[in-house]
Specification:
229 residues; mainly beta; 12 strands; 29% strand
């Protein structure tokens, strides 16, 4: 098993544009590892090989695919080093076809979706002393060999990740705050919480497919565990 991490910080983010069926070259650009990625001539698909940089303490929302065993790990960096992992053994083989992985981020909540199914909710509990993402963010993706995930079997190389549909909805960020993006005129701000049907669906999928939850152990639990699912 090759324990490489496909790290997709895929955010309905607070920068730049509203994009549908985006051309990668129009809205994105490489930050590093230029020799490890290719984009097809139409700009509709990106192929990436291993590369990674450590950004330090920051806000971040993650999808991380652990090797090829069908496990996706979600993580939240809340102006710190993260360690809010919740992992799911997916109900499909993610290496066989493209699937949709989305993150809703608004002033009320962060929701992780897989194929439109909510699997994780992180609520804004700033009034209770829990920090909450409040700065502009960007979308970033990489492929890297994380020591904590296990030993890489390099005999199985090359390791390739494929991306399609680089879509996002966002408002322009004009300073180091996202307060200007909290208006109800943006559709993503109108959802303040999951409805009853979404809650039930999320609970069902978490019960069936969640394999790890940082909130389940006192050694890894954090204050927000009392109010987040």
């Amino acid at each position: 098993m090759a324990f490489l991490i496909f790290n997709a910080i895929s955010i309905l983010l607070v920068v730049l544009f509203t994009s549908s069926n985006a051309d990668f070259n129009q809205y994105y650009y490489p930050l590093w590892g230029l020799n490890h990625l290719t984009v097809n001539p139409q700009g509709t698909e990106l192929t990436s090989a291993p590369d990674y940089q450590n950004p330090g303490n920051h806000f971040e929302l993650d999808y991380e695919f652990l090797g090829t065993n069908g496990t996706v790990q979600t993580n939240v960096y809340d102006n710190d080093g993260g360690h809010r992992e919740q992992s799911f053994k997916l109900w499909f083989n993610p290496s066989q076809d493209f699937h949709t992985y989305e993150i809703l981020w608004n002033p009320h909540q962060i929701v992780f979706y897989v194929d439109k199914i909510p699997i994780r909710e992180f609520n804004n509990n700033k009034v209770r002393g829990v920090d909450y993402p409040s700065r502009p963010m960007h979308i970033e993706a990489s492929l890297w060999n994380a020591n904590w995930a296990g030993v890489v079997d390099w005999s199985q190389a090359p390791f390739i990740a494929h991306y399609q549909d680089f879509n996002f909805n966002a408002c322009p960020a004009q300073s180091n705050t996202v307060s200007q993006c909290s208006s109800d005129r943006y559709f993503w701000n109108k959802q303040t919480k999951l409805n009853a049907a979404q809650k039930q669906q999320m609970q069902q999928y978490r019960k069936s497919y969640m394999s790890y939850d940082y909130c389940s152990k006192s050694a890894t639990s954090k204050p927000e565990c009392a109010w987040n699912n």
